[in-house]
Design a protein that fits this description.
This protein has about 100 residues and is mostly helical. About 65% of the residues lie in helices and about 0% in strands. The longest helix has 12 residues.
């Protein structure tokens, strides 16, 4: 019976803790491949992929990278991600791109 008053707290912890820190991690190598496949020089692709990691959610990052690796252009990949996930990621993405791509 002692545990019965703690059940709501245990239930809340069981529901919240798995969500904390969860999420897909960015696949930097996949992004580098996609960017070079789209014609970006290797040094710029490395800068872009590595600096973008952590700036946008891993799920969005990997979605864009996977599309580019399928042969879809960078611009079209970003537009598809915007339609699927919303436009919140575009500002940090553009900032990183402008700092890395000449």
């Amino acid at each position: 019976m002692l545990y019965s008053k703690f059940y709501p707290y245990l239930l809340a912890a069981a529901l919240v803790l798995p969500m904390a820190g969860c999420g897909e991690s960015a696949n930097v190598d996949l992004m580098k491949q996609g960017l070079t496949r789209n014609g970006l020089p290797a040094d710029q692709a490395i800068c872009y992929a590595e600096n973008l990691d952590g700036k946008i959610k891993g799920e969005i990052y990997n979605f864009i990278a996977a599309l580019m690796n399928e042969g879809i252009t960078e611009k079209d990949s970003i537009n598809r991600a915007r339609r699927k996930f919303g436009a919140d990621f575009k500002t940090p993405l553009e900032e990183v791109r402008n700092s890395c791509v000449n």
